[in-house]
Automatic annotation (TrEMBL):
<dbReference type="InterPro" id="IPR013216">
    <property type="entry name" value="Methyltransf_11"/>
</dbReference>
<feature type="region of interest" description="Disordered">
    <location>
        <begin position="1"/>
        <end position="43"/>
    </location>
</feature>
<protein>
    <recommendedName>
        <fullName>Methyltransferase type 11 domain-containing protein</fullName>
    </recommendedName>
</protein>
<dbReference type="InterPro" id="IPR029063">
    <property type="entry name" value="SAM-dependent_MTases_sf"/>
</dbReference>
<dbReference type="Pfam" id="PF08241">
    <property type="entry name" value="Methyltransf_11"/>
</dbReference>
<feature type="domain" description="Methyltransferase type 11">
    <location>
        <begin position="78"/>
        <end position="156"/>
    </location>
</feature>
Length: 289
């Protein structure tokens, strides 16, 4: 489905280059994106799970620095799948698009109002923005390739994607306790080579180190704080948990509690409790034309 782009990369900072050959007629064709009553356009209905403003998903300032670096000196930035506005800098002119009405309504007043639109059909002119970003979002889109082509079309400079590398998501202790959750993640996240290929130009893939006290509560953020994932509200803030049934959650809860009480978790993974950062599946994909 995606054109192949060569990767010549190491684990930390990978580079790839390939021509962007999207036919012009494909870039603006009408696309059918299914929307829920709330307007949600991806594989999660935020009107139903309602986890947008979770106190467990606060932007982390150290991760924010990696995003800022990837955006460089861009002044005008498009944020696609902006949600409640995490990682939007007030030092730049940000245009946010967000399909879910409930998430748009939860954006703080200091941020720009988000436009109701979907990645696959952006209501902007060619080259309108210095840069564009999409954070923890591309795995939810119904057509990632179309959405990324749209981002490339409306952006003069870098397109920045914060996402997870699906080949790495299972390399995490959580896989021992809830394999179904990480199998779901591995299926949802598009391969990073497909992202760079869809964007064309010159792409880099950079591992983002996750801090031990990360404030943005995606699963790997709790690498050294396993007890946090015993809180159902913390789990609900990661959409993958909404794809599995109660049996998976109960099994996870029982087995992790057991291993924490018996000392088995500490014996095997306890070193993570003091490890300042964790290099897991979190990556920034960046492409320039
Ligand atoms: C996990 S949230 C991330 C929100 C925000 N970027 C953040 O980092 O907090 C995923 C977001 O992607 C949005 N989304 C899903 N499908 C989309 C699509 N086809 N086009 C644009 N946004 C989409 C969702 O509505 C949601 O806001």
């Amino acid at each position: 489905m995606y054109p192949h782009a060569p990767l010549h990369l190491d684990r930390h900072n990978r580079q790839c280059a390939g021509p962007f050959t999207a036919p012009a007629h494909e870039a603006r064709q009408d696309r059918m994106t299914t929307r829920t009553q709330d307007g949600s356009a991806g594989d999660v209905d935020y009107g139903a799970i309602g986890s947008g403003c979770s106190s467990f998903r606060r932007p982390d300032e150290r991760i924010a620095r990696f995003i800022a670096q990837a955006l460089g000196d861009s002044r005008t930035v498009l944020n696609v799948g902006a949600g409640t506005g995490s990682y939007e800098s007030t030092g730049r002119t940000v245009t946010a698009i967000e399909p879910s009405e409930s998430l748009r309504a939860q954006r703080p007043a200091r941020l720009a109002r988000a436009i109701d639109a979907v990645a696959e059909d952006l209501p902007f002119a060619d080259g309108e923005f210095d840069a564009a970003m999409t954070l923890f979002s591309v795995h939810q889109w119904s057509d990632a390739r179309a959405g990324l082509r749209e981002m490339r079309r409306v952006t003069r400079g870098p397109v920045v994607i914060l996402t997870c590398d699906p080949t790495l998501v299972r390399d995490f202790w959580l896989y021992r306790y809830a394999p179904e959750v990480l199998d779901t993640e591995a299926r949802r996240y598009p391969p990073v080579e497909q992202l760079t290929a869809a964007l064309g130009g010159t792409g880099t893939i950079q591992t983002v180190p996750i801090p031990l006290d990360c404030t943005d509560g995606f699963n790997e953020a709790y690498y050294g704080r396993p007890e946090m994932l015993l809180d159902s509200a913390a789990r609900q803030a990661c959409s993958a948990w909404s794809f599995v049934d109660d049996r998976v959650r109960e099994h996870f809860d029982e087995t992790l509690r057991h291993d924490l009480n018996s000392g088995a978790w500490n014996a095997e993974f306890g070193h993570l409790r003091g490890q300042p950062t964790y290099e897991g599946s979190l990556v920034i994909v960046r492409a320039t034309p």
